Amino acid sequence: MRLKTIARKLIPYGAITPLALIVLVAYVGTVLWSIKISLTSSRSLPTDTFVGMTQYAKLFENERWLLSIENLAIYSVLFIVASMVIGFLLAAFIDQKVKAEGVLRTVFLYPYAMSFVATGLVWQWMLTPGIGIENAVRQWGFPNFEFDWIIDQDKVIYTIVIATVWQTSGLVMAMMLAGLRGIDQEIWKATRLDGIPAWRVYLSIILPMMAPTLATVFLLLSTAAIKLFDSVVAMTQGGPGTASEVPAKFIMDHLFGRANIALASAGAVMLLVPVVALLAPYMYARMHARSNARSHATSAVNKKEVPLNKVSRGAT
């Protein structure tokens, strides 16, 4: 009996061990290895020649890296804001119990099922001057219409925003809709009785109640923005010139194309910093919420036990 009890206790640990090993080796191990390589003078092959922060100094002296950071900042702000606004509006629309809700949800979510490469190629064709959108509008009777953002160095990054927002808004819609469906309908009934406008209810009541959902969506979109790569390669290859360069493409080019794994590793480490900066407060907030929930539950149990003790003493 005792052996069976021990075996039952060990089964969960045995099941989770492979996953724990993968996390430690494939994730934590590679991160530590990248940090180590970034502190060396490695080129085509790893070396143990320690050079300190030299690679990081070279990284921030590189105009291409600085441009990629600037592009990433512009892209991240526009991508996150647009995806969250459009996704929420779509969710609010579907939440009105519209007809063919299942069809609409499928249509809005379908772009996310496509690969970023396929999305990039489709939008590249649509945005290329002379064909796609520009050609269609000219055939509608506007012969002087021009839409050449994809070949304009100052506007090309906005075309990537358009393509990725189109693809990601469906996922945001699904998550927002789940959050909206978790709102008690009695709140809506009370606000209707008070005559509060719908937009005010959303801003003052619904959105604050959806704070956990909004935080999750923001975190997912932020990490997606930081690792942007596929869409840029498919649509512009970082061009025209280096106008749409992003950090992930800079890293891949130096890792495989320029045989400078130390500089690429330094870039990868710097790209990890904003991810950690986003995850750390999120994880802390979750742990803090759990600890508060446990303390409240414990205090509630203790409060229930006190009267029982008093009653038992009075009876004796």
Automatic annotation (TrEMBL):
Principal subcellular localization: membrane
InterPro entries for this protein: ABC_transporter_permease, MetI-like, MetI-like_sf
Domain annotation ABC transmembrane type-1: ranges: 69-282
Transmembrane regions: 12-35, 72-94, 106-126, 156-180, 201-226, 261-285
Pfam families (alphabetical): BPD_transp_1 (PF00528)
Entry similarity comment: Belongs to the binding-protein-dependent transport system permease family.
PANTHER family: ABC TRANSPORTER PERMEASE PROTEIN (PTHR30193:SF42)
Name of the molecule in the record: Sugar ABC transporter permease
UniProt source species: Undibacterium cyanobacteriorum
